[in-house]
């Protein structure tokens, strides 16, 4: 609704007119971002002083967003006549039609159809993003944002080209080898300025992270069983002979904890992979390192296709008409590839702390449960404390 029309409305809504809250204004989005940051802090420190957590410039900045909100006009093609205003930590504030663009992976015909009305790729991408809906943004900084650009397509915007390409390759590989698996379909990759844009199909529903508290134990068990079946399906994809571990098509190995480590030399087997993991400390003594490693099972693990970050935030669910819940998609495949069979177990508990209250970890599927790989899981928990990225 145009702001001028809002100003002309009566002070009280009429019986047949309802004023809906607009959650997409700069001021509203700033409040939402501040609230998310507060919630993130309270999760780790429930007794924190909320007043002290608010930025000292909060009121001034909020008012500035209210006063200087820009509502640019658009042309017949949907292009903005002037660059729209976005929050400083919105990646769209750092993207411009003058930025150089390059197609890294061929775009689908559906995506090209959205971009065709514009004079060039950069302009098309900027306007597509400007008209999109924000689906995900981090609490404090927009290092990664996800937008819904059409009814069927979303785009993940990040500065990490390696992870972006790995995710696209994995989705294409998964579509080729398990085409019925519930995962996004890849639609291409573009570099725009300093950012990489990964386009995929939209997965409807809500994250398991948001839905979990609604479930009773029977529903939690049902979801766990569904995920167990999906992981087992992934493991049916054969590990090609004479192929390196890590991302498909030579994407390399990635160990994401608080920080990220990447291998510098090709890894062809589990022993070399564990060499890579146990070389990740600058403080542990050789004695301590060798002692922990000696606890690992002597029989090498098999290599399987792994997601690498199976947590509720990356699992999409929806409710059926009969009231039951089902998994409709697994998202965020940037850490996926061929890894030792225990790797998804280790990574599924990356965020587990001694103060954890959410009982998701009591319902981990058998395929990725610490009960299935107790030694590897416990050794990794100990070793994590010594790692440079732990």
UniProtKB/TrEMBL annotation:
Q: Which Pfam families match?
A: APH
InterPro entries, per the entry: AGP_Transferase, Aminoglycoside_PTrfase, Kinase-like_dom_sf
Residues forming the Aminoglycoside phosphotransferase domain are 152-359
> What is the protein named?
Aminoglycoside phosphotransferase domain-containing protein
Question: What species is given as this protein's source?
Answer: Verticillium dahliae (strain VdLs.17 / ATCC MYA-4575 / FGSC 10137) (Verticillium wilt)
